[in-house]
Amino acid sequence: MNSQGQPSQGQHRRGQLDGVEDTGLAADQLSDQERRKRSFGLLAEIMRPVKWQFSSAAVFIVIQQLATVVGPALIAWAIDTALPDLIDGDASLAILAGIAYLATAVLRAITTYLGTWLTTLAGQKVLYGLRRRIFSHTQRLSLGFHERYTSGRVISRQTNDTESLRELLQTGLDVIVGAPLLMVFTAIAILSMDWVTGLLMLLMLIPGVFLTRWFQRKSAEAYRDIRTHSARLTVDFVETMGGIRAVQGFRRETENDERFAAVGLDYKNAALRSIRIFGIYQPSLKVLGNLIVAIVLVVGGWRVLSGQLDVGVLLALVLYTRRFFQPIDMIASFYNSLQSAVAALEKIASLLAEEPTIREPAHPVALPAESELGGVGGTLEFHGASFKYSATGPTVLHPLELRIPGGQTIALVGQTGAGKSTVAKLVARFYDVTDGQITLDGVDLRSLTSQSLRDAVVMVTQESYLFSGTIAENIAIGRPNATREEIEAAARTIGADAFIRRLPQGYDTDVQTRGGRLSAGQRQLVSFARAFLADPRVLILDEATSSLDQPSERAVQDGLTTLLGDRTALIIAHRLATVMVADRVLVMHDGRVVEDGTPAELIAAGGRFAQLHRAWRESI
Ligand SMILES: Nc1ncnc2c1ncn2[C@@H]1O[C@H](COP(=O)(O)OP(=O)(O)OP(=O)(O)O)[C@@H](O)[C@H]1O
C-alpha cells in the first residue's frame, strides 16, 4: 500500500484474507460481485479465440464417455446372449461382441487423445496470450503503480497465477463436462437395467454428498492458506534477493533466514493440513463406493438366484456401480483447483484493469522544431505546478513558477525529502502535476505523445541501469537505429571508448558475463554515452551519491561536462564539482524553491546554499 494512502475497510479485510494482496490498486475498490464479474469477463475474453477448439474437445469428451458407458452393457450382453449361443456351437455373436468391445475401446482411446490434445493446445494458446498481455500491460503502467505494487507480486501473477489457470484450462473440461456426464450416463444405464440397484445407489449417494460437502469446505480453507503462504514465499524471496546489497550490507541474513523459515513453516503446515483432509476424504469415499458394490453384489446375487436378474446384468451393474463413484473424487479435487484458478483470475484481472495514470493525449501537439526556436530548444516552464503523490497525501511540491531557458544547466540541491526527485519525475512525466502545468518549448507535457516526450527528455538515473546484452546494445538503447560508428562515436565523445576497447570483446562484450562486469564509474560513462546518443533537448540526471576513486571521478566529471553540452539539464547534484559547473542553482526546501541564482550569487547571499557550500568544502 502507498505509504500515504489510507486503505479502505474493504481493502483491509481483503488484505488480511489474502495475506499479501493488499495492493492499493484503484481497481481493488470494487465489490466482490463486481470483481467476480470482471474476472469472468476476462475468462470469456481470453477463451474467445479458442472457443472452437474447446467446443470440439467437449464433443470428443461426450463421445468418450458414451463409449465408456457402453463397455459393461456389452459385457452383460455377451454373457447373457452370446455365451449361451457359443456353448451351443454358434460363435458369431461372441465374435461380434468381441469386435464391438474392441471398437468402443479404440473409440475411447482416439477421442481421449483428441480431447486432451485440443484442450492442451487451446490452454497453452490462451496462457501464451495472457502471459504476453500481463507482461506488456505491466511494463506500460506508470511509475506510480510500480512504486506500490512490488515486483514479487508481479512475479506471482506471471508464475503462480498463470499456473493455476493452466490447471483449470487443461483439466477443467474433462471434469466439468466429462465427470458429470459419466455419472449421468452410468445412472441411466443402471436404472434402465435394474431400477432396484439404481435406487440403492442413489440412496448411497446421500452420505457421499455430505462427505463431499465437508471435504469442499475444509479443503477450500486449507487451499486458501496454501495460496496465501505460497504467495508470501515468492514475495519474500524476490524482495530479499532484489535487495541483496542491503541485506548483506546490513548483515540481515540471520533475521531473513528466520523470517523465511517462519513463512516456509506456515506453508508446510498448510500443505500438510490439506493433505490430511484429502487423506480422510478419499479413503472414506472409497469405503462408501465399495460398500455399495458389496450391497449390489449381495442384493443382486439374491435376485439372480431368484431368477429376477441375469448374471451378465449383475456383472454390468457391479462394474457400473464401481465406476459411478470415481468421478465424485475427481470433481471434489478439482474444486480446489477451480478455487485457486478463480482467485488467480481475479488478481490477474485486477492487474489488467489497472490503467496507466499517465495517458497518451487525445489531441497530441508536436514540439516546435529547434530551428523555429532560434536553434535552442528545451525551454521548461512551470506554471503554478504543484504535486501530491496521492489525493489524501501531503503536498510534495507547492505551486511553482519557474522558467528554465533552453540550454541552461540547473543544479537542484536541498536536504533529503525536499522534493528534488519529485521535480525530476514531473519533468520526465513519470507523474502528472496535480495542479498547474509544465511546458516544454511552450507545449504542455501532457499534450506530447510519449514517443516525442521520450525523444525530448531523457533521464539518467543514479544506478545507471545496464540491460543484459552487449555494451554496444546498451548504448544503442539511446537511439535504436544508430549505426555502429555512431555508437562508438558517442562513447568516444563521452570518454568511454578507451575502457570499452580494453574489455575482452570490446563493444561486443556482454555486460552480464564476468569479463563484462563494469565498475560504478564505467557504468555511469556507458549510461552517459547512451544519453548522448539519444541527444535529447532536456537531460535529467540523478547524480550518483556513491563517491568514485579520483581517476574515475575525473573521467565521469569530464564525460558529464561533454554530455551537458549546451542542452537543458536538470541535475540532482550531490557533488560540489557538479554544482559549480551549473549555470544556476535551485535550492529546494519542503517542496518549495527557496533560493534561485548562479552558484556565485547564492554563495554571496549567505543563505542555505552558502551553508551547504561551506559544509561541502570542509568535507573535501
Ligand atoms: N512514491 C512516493 N509516494 C509517496 N510519497 C513519496 C514518494 N516518493 C517521494 N515521496 C515523498 O515526497 C517527498 C519528496 O521526496 P523526493 O524523493 O522528491 O525528495 P528528494 O529531495 O529527491 O530527496 P532525496 O535527496 O533523499 O532523494 C518526501 O517527503 C517523500 O517522502
From TrEMBL:
It is found in: Cell membrane. Residues 380-615 form the ABC transporter domain. Pfam families: ABC_membrane, ABC_tran. Residues 1-20 are annotated as: Disordered. Residues 1-10 have a biased composition (Polar residues). The keyword Membrane applies. GO terms for cellular component: plasma membrane. It comes from the Bacteria. Gene3D superfamilies: ABC transporter type 1, transmembrane domain, P-loop containing nucleotide triphosphate hydrolases. The chain crosses the membrane at residues 57-79, 91-110, 172-191, 197-215, 287-305. Residues 57-340 form the ABC transmembrane type-1 domain. Its main location: membrane. It is a multi-pass membrane protein. Keywords: ATP-binding, Cell membrane, Membrane, Nucleotide-binding, Transmembrane, Transmembrane helix, Transport. GO terms for molecular function: ABC-type oligopeptide transporter activity; ATP binding; ATP hydrolysis activity. Belongs to the ABC transporter superfamily. Lipid exporter (TC 3.A.1.106) family. This is ABC transporter ATP-binding protein. It comes from Gulosibacter chungangensis.
